[in-house]
Write a structure and sequence with these properties.
Number of helices: 6
Structural class: mainly alpha
Order of helices and strands: HHEEHHHH
Number of strands: 2
Amino acid sequence: MAQLINFINFFIRIYMMLISFRIILTWFSGIGRSGIQDFLIKITDPYLNWFRRFTFLRIGFLDLSPIAAIGVLSLLSRVLGILARYGRISIGIIMSLLMEAVWGALSFILIFLIAVLILRLIGYLLQQNTGNPFWRVIDTISGPVLFRINRLIFKDRIVNYMTALLISIFGFVAIYFILRNIFSLLSSILIRLPF
């Protein structure tokens, strides 16, 4: 039984990789479509389209439906892995899985924000043209984040842009590591519950 579960889990992971490749290829829409792209569209879009119908997964120009789709597959993969390993599913394991799913989404958002803020810092240091479409997207994402952090930490004081960027980056990195340890500890406690 465990071998069958591992076999199914292997295909789920392959499908997750195909979806990831499909998402990455959408970033390069200026390049003409190839047979590989058509193949990926054919096998991944039916699944992705199911998540695209949920409007709450769209925030402005940002479409989070592929992340939700991969998150569901990741959760299913994790359930199958635990079932193959322990031979059972308990309430504690289910709660641990749900906690891991929440952490997965939260950690993705934190890492994404850290990456955007680091890119903005690099652009600021290199004095990149903010009229460039790439930097406009980075500013569209980083601007509101920096504004909220400044309001939260500095209240009404005016702060240097570089200081705001550095404090935001270090703050998000600290939050990431603190939350990762908390979620890891809680998850290990829940998995050991006997029921």
